[in-house]
Amino acid sequence: MEKEENILGYEKIGKLIRKFAIPCIISLLVNSLYNIVDQIFIGWGVGYLGNGATNVVFPLTMICLAFPLMLGDGSSAYLSLKLGEKKKEEAAKGVGNGITLSIIIALILFTIIIGFLPTLLNVFGCTDEFRTYALDYGYIISVGLPFMMVGTTLNSIIRADGKPNYAMASMVMGAILNTILDPIFIFVLKMGVQGAAIATVISQIITFAINICYIKKFKSILLDKDKFRLKSNVFLKVSALGISSFITQMSFVFVIAVENNLLKKYGGESQFGSEIPITVLGIVMKVSQILNSIIIGISAGSQPILGYNYGAEKFDRVKETLKRVLGISVIISTVAFILFQTIPDKLILIFGSESNGNYIEFACLAFRVYLMLCICNGIQIPSGIFFQAIGKSIKSAILSLSRQILFLIPAMLILGSFFGIHGVLYAGPFADGLAFIVAVILLLLELRHLKNEKVETEYIEKDILVNNKFNKHIVITLSREYGSGGRYIGKLIAEKLGIKLYDKEFVSKLAKETGLSEEYIKNNEQKRDSLAILNYGYYSGLNNADELFIKETELIKEVANKESCVIVGRCADFILSDNKDVIKVFIYSDMKNKINRAVNFYKLSKENAEKEIKRIDKLRANHYKYYTGKDWKDKSNYDICIESDYFGVEKVADIICKIVSNYMNEDEKTVIKS
């Protein structure tokens, strides 16, 4: 029976965007507002020095947030991937390891912050005027950081377990409680910044407690004590899956550290002093983060829609989705631009009433100059997530890091040295403009390659004469270097033994199962570039590559259980490692012979052959390492490792067939390592 089409391939685009985007927007906005609420009440209860002090402490909070985001998103991806492979025990180990590692890192960071807080504050631009407030706030807020870290890790995992409403409720309850407690501690109990910190810590503990209660309620896995024991191969994979979130978060920390120190230096040389610029620009960045949260939420909501339809070669739906996302994002960023340019004095007064004329003057300057080109965010942010969705990891990484690292920091350093405090502010639109130009260029180039009509590339399953020479069941998995002749050897083995060959046949089967086009599958399966790990982050679901691997795993197990066969590539040796009657083969060759084959059989030029061979083999090795945790060329993974040049492909096929015959007749494996 033909598989029912994925809803992403036929439902109305607008309805899909609303379905996926709204939860993302709410979650991101809650995170943004969590920090802003403190600043609003501190501004009214303490003054701008209190706000400036929290801005100096804020990078420490962001560092502590980077790790749980990495472990939470990584555990979520690991959970989804292993559940897709029907490996619940492995999925539970990933979740348990993520939680345990989060606890350990939280305690380490807590110890470091408590022990070295004054020094750390200096790194992030603390001034003498801020110091007392920053220490009062920092020491208390550090108590809640371990609870925040573990709670955040759990929040991502809970969403991946299929309970996004529970995860959202815990966040919202914490935010609401913080909003209620802030005025009580600041205004009623007259505790100033210490009261704001206590309110935040209490709220973080409540969110932590709500999420901890979910551990016994997981519907997809069962967590016991053994699952929380750290295993390097598990927690390293979990960390790798979440590294995109970590890099993004830490880039902001780096920017704030540089920015605060430049504002401290050049502000001190201006009429505004050091404290006003640090305070105001911290507020400006947090206000702009509300804008970015909405745009990111919309873009992240479109990610599964874009990814699926791109893989299915429904390029009209890809274009329509992208057009809608860009249109909505530009409208939102335009509204924000108008507000920033017309009423900056009203916006800054939300964070406290100040009679200091320099404070209001710099606030108006900062909103109008630093966010001058915030409209560009409506293009740049969705473009980065678009490339993430379609698996273009290099372009996605360029767009994700270009604004912060490549453009903003150098611009602040250079323009600041020439124009002082005004130069630091103008670095904002300079970076936004350059990032916008890069995004538009990459986007236009990519859209040119999108075809208007779906291209069908069918692989016809040739009927091989199946006349198994053995009464027993046998499966041969064959991994091979590119250009080694391994695929042809597999064909010869299948013909000689009278069993089925499975290679390109999987492509058409996968197309039917996933809805992705055969052309897309052909070009993307068994290949993984080194930056593909950056395609995780905003949307904690499986990408097309993971879907392909899961479906391939199911198909490989199905055919291996059903009949004797030869299976080429696709990590089949690992997938069938628990199966009996499996012989695992690896074919390799020296570069000179691989180049000759690539020229003669693949019609590559001699100049490009070696480069292409190395590229394909690297992609295969990355793919194998990612899904198995093992090295592709490690001979201990296989029963037979044989060089095709030494014997020649025909002889290699004969040798393997003879080994199989011995195995089938004598009930023992013969292992050749050459």
Give a concise summary.
The protein is mostly helical and 674 residues long. The chain is built from 24 helices and 6 strands. The chain folds into 3 domains: 23-241, no CATH class; 269-454, no CATH class; 475-673, Rossmann fold (3-Layer(aba) Sandwich), CATH 3.40.50.300.
Written description of the protein model:
The chain contains 24 helices and six strands. It is mainly alpha-helical and 674 residues long. Helix content is 72%, strand content 4%. The longest helix has 37 residues, at 48-84. Helix 2 (48-84) runs antiparallel to helix 3 (88-123), helix 13 (377-389) packs antiparallel against helix 14 and helix 21 crosses helix 22. It has three domains: 23-241, no CATH class; 269-454, no CATH class; 475-673, Rossmann fold (3-Layer(aba) Sandwich). It starts with 12 loop residues before the first helix and ends with a strand. Strands 2-3-1-4-5-6 form a six-stranded parallel beta sheet, sandwiched between helices. The protein is elongated and about 95 Å long.
